[in-house]
Amino acid sequence: MNAEIEELNRRASEYSDILNNVKNEVKRVIVGQDEVVDRLLIALSAGGHVLLEGVPGIAKTLTIKTLSECIDADFSRIQFTPDLLPSDIVGTRIYNHHDGEFSTVKGPVFASFILADEINRAPPKVQSALLEAMQEYQVTIQGNTFPLNSPFFVLATENPIESEGTYPLPEAQVDRFMFKVMMTYPSLSDEVIILDRFTEGFASKPERVIPAEKIIEIQKFVKEIYAESEIKKYCAALVDATRNPDRYGLDAGNYISCGASPRASIYLVLGAKAYALLKGRGYVTPQDVKSIAADVLRHRILLTYEAEAEEVTTDDLIEKILQSVPVP
């Protein structure tokens, strides 16, 4: 077992160096936001998708676009608006008058990197066009099924402070995102650097430092990273605590209307493995699970009206859960 762990550590260290090269290229454009960039790389390595939430003007779109520019893969940006149609995303069938046959016109979802910008501005019918793509990595257009690119990575943005002209994301859609990452304002010192870069022409363009094939290789390796059975039980217990808080001594049952799905357990394990990889390790520790727990769980816990009235947030509940569930 020790020899296997050593080999996993060696390979993890190599892949970690590659991902850090990507991060360094992103940092040539994006100032600060280290944790956000890390979460994007972790989700990409684990084969998950990310919902990025933050106020306007803090470089959500720029961060995602910059990451895609560091990887040699196709990129599509879909600007979600109230008048968008599902066919504008997945594509449609068009009749050709010359030969009397129908042909398929594929939509922008047929790319490796998909930026769903302001995803909550489109109605649920349009948002649901991504359901099959995000889960099954395929798209059905009028009865014909087409596989999507590999890797396939959806990064969606939404604005938390604006409600006019927006639609709540369907729970089935939200649950398909591995992480919900909160992006905050930059620090004062970071904002001064931003001014230097974007008001005096110092901003640089990132270089492509990794092929798409290497991302696929990393995603396969993430599943090989060692996680003991106790770690998996710990992940399952954290998710179970969102459904049965009383079982863990938590007085939170009146705040939670619906707990996390089994996808949360899967993404906790995969996210912890990818987190360990980013740190150059071939094995998972409980701290790896704790580090990504909030990002995995915060959009999967539905609050009651009582919680909203008392201004109890999902992050508050997750913190209590992490303190209550025994660590292996």
Largest sheet: 5 strands, parallel
Q: Per CATH, which architecture of the largest domain?
A: 3-Layer(aba) Sandwich
Q: What CATH first level of the largest domain would be assigned?
A: Alpha Beta
- CATH topology of the largest domain, by name, is Rossmann fold
The structure class reads alpha/beta
Q: Which segments are poorly predicted (pLDDT under 50) over 5 or more consecutive residues?
A: none
Distance between the termini: 20 Å
The H/E string reads HHEHEEHEEEHHEEEHEHEHHEHHEHH
Strand content: 15-25%
Task: Return the average pLDDT rounded to an integer.
Answer: 87
Number of strands: 13
Helix content: 40-55%
How many helical elements?
14
Structural key phrases:
ChlI/MoxR_AAA_lid, ATPase associated with various cellular activities AAA_3, P-loop_NTPase, ATP binding, globular, 328 residues, 2 domains, Rossmann fold, single chain, Helicase, Ruva Protein, domain 3, 16% strand, alpha/beta, ATP hydrolysis activity
Offer a concise description of the structure:
With 328 residues, the chain is of the alpha/beta class. Helix content is 46%, strand content 16%. The protein folds into two domains: 29-216, Rossmann fold (3-Layer(aba) Sandwich); 225-324, Magnesium chelatase subunit I, C-Terminal domain (Helicase, Ruva Protein, domain 3, Orthogonal Bundle), CATH 1.10.8.
